[in-house]
Amino acid sequence: MNLNITGHHLEITPAIREYTASKFGKIKRHFDNVIDVQIILSVDKLKQKAEATVHMSGKDLFVECDDENLYAAIDTLVDTMDRQVIKHKEKLSNHRHGESGKHIAVAE
What we know:
By secondary structure, the chain is α+β, with helices and mostly antiparallel strands. Helix content is 42%, strand content 34%.
């Protein structure tokens, strides 16, 4: 998994880089087919913003979160992205096994 972290009006310190990388390791544990992750951290007055684009085989996922604290924005970003990755993984496994995900009982 390639992890690219950039800052907009913000210097990316080693502490921020390490914190972000450790949090995005959670996504790698849930789904192995993640190819590339682009993260943009930005500051606009009192609003800290975190954006991430995850490129995986077959789909690109985008999440954007903002908060007053940059670390809280990163946490929210990772949680939201993790939910999207798990949902994508479940869709792939349902298609491969021929399940539609909905079970309808047929009355005879």
